[in-house]
UniProtKB/TrEMBL annotation:
The chain crosses the membrane at residues 12-28, 34-56, 68-87, 99-117, 124-145, 151-168, 175-198, 210-228, 240-261, 267-286. Residues 9-140, 150-282 form the EamA domain. InterPro entries: Diverse_Substrate_Transporter, EamA_dom, EmrE-like. It is found in: Cell membrane. This is DMT family transporter. Pfam families: EamA. It is a multi-pass membrane protein.
Length: 296
């Protein structure tokens, strides 16, 4: 296949990945109707990690102690981020706006790179902060001059995800991506499930529908999503892939409007638009290259 064919295949694969990611928000929200949040997230990632481990057996066997420790570090950060995310999902009253708040982590990645690793991000990074903050303010004002608990949880998740991305890029360099992802998911389960046992009251009987949403979350929104994303990213550059993956909050808002009949006020729409503008500004060099026909 020629270069343009590879790029088209990568684009289609990554766009489909964002569809699956958006569906994952719906799957998870539905599952919370019959499962406590920590129990759900622990089971989801244990199941997904075990499935991914089947594909990564040779690489897992070759992993040394140093790689295992680094994988555990990344998994611990991921467990913190995903715990904040699922608590936000439990408390949110509006899935669409929440997905945009969670996406603020993309804007914060280069900021954290500057603060903790001494990198010098482009000027577009700092220019993106103003619309990002303005967007979050609009979403907060839409609820009567207050930040709701779900918004705080999603904002916290965005901060930890931004830190996780930087640690992932600077600390874990020699661990294969599939192995690292498998370890991340298994560590989430190992850390979150005992926490769920300690803090949550587990139901005596789980509705069949909730179990179905759990399986869909684990196998489709986690395992399948990761495998497709990994394959799509292998066909293009990381910068090009990052621009396409920013579509996730857009599809999530559309899916929430369709599935839950969510609507947005003018202020909420303005807030989401400002945050999406911040995402584009923070990756402006890549976006400009995309429209000029370059892959990144």
């Amino acid at each position: 296949m020629n270069s343009s064919g590879h790029h088209l295949k990568a684009d289609l694969m990554l766009v489909f990945t964002t569809f699956i990611a958006a569906a994952g928000w719906i799957f998870s929200k539905e599952a919370l109707g019959g499962l406590p949040p920590l129990l759900f997230i622990g089971l989801r990632f244990v199941l997904a990690g075990l499935v991914l481990a089947v594909f990564a057996v040779p690489q897992l066997r070759a992993l040394d102690r140093r790689g295992l420790c680094r994988g555990f570090l990344i998994g611990t950060l991921f467990a913190c981020a995903i715990t904040l995310w699922i608590l936000g999902l439990q408390h949110t009253r509006h899935l669409g706006e929440s997905s945009f708040i969670a996406s603020l982590g993309i804007v914060l990645v280069p900021v954290f790179a500057r603060l903790f690793f001494g990198e010098r991000p482009p000027a577009s990074t700092w220019a993106a902060l103003l619309p990002a903050l303005a967007g979050f303010a609009c979403l907060s004002l839409a609820h009567g001059f207050r930040v709701e608990p779900g918004q705080w949880f999603f904002l916290g998740a965005a901060v930890v995800f931004a830190l996780l991305f930087n640690v992932n890029s600077h600390v874990v360099r020699n661990v294969p991506v599939l192995v690292l992802s498998t370890l991340q998911m298994l560590v989430v389960g190992l850390l979150v499930l005992p926490t769920a046992l300690w803090f949550e009251r587990w139901p005596e009987q789980v509705p069949a529908a909730a179990l179905g949403w759990l399986v869909a979350s684990a196998l489709i929104a986690t395992t399948l999503r990761f495998l497709l994303q990994l394959y799509g990213q292998s066909l293009t550059t990381p910068s090009h892939a990052a621009v396409i993956l920013m579509l996730e909050p857009v599809w999530t808002a559309i899916a929430a409007a369709w599935w839950f009949a969510e609507t947005m006020t003018g202020l909420q729409l303005a807030g989401c638009a400002l945050i999406f503008a911040a995402l584009l500004i923070s990756r402006w060099n890549w976006v400009r290259g995309l429209f000029k026909g370059r892959p990144g």
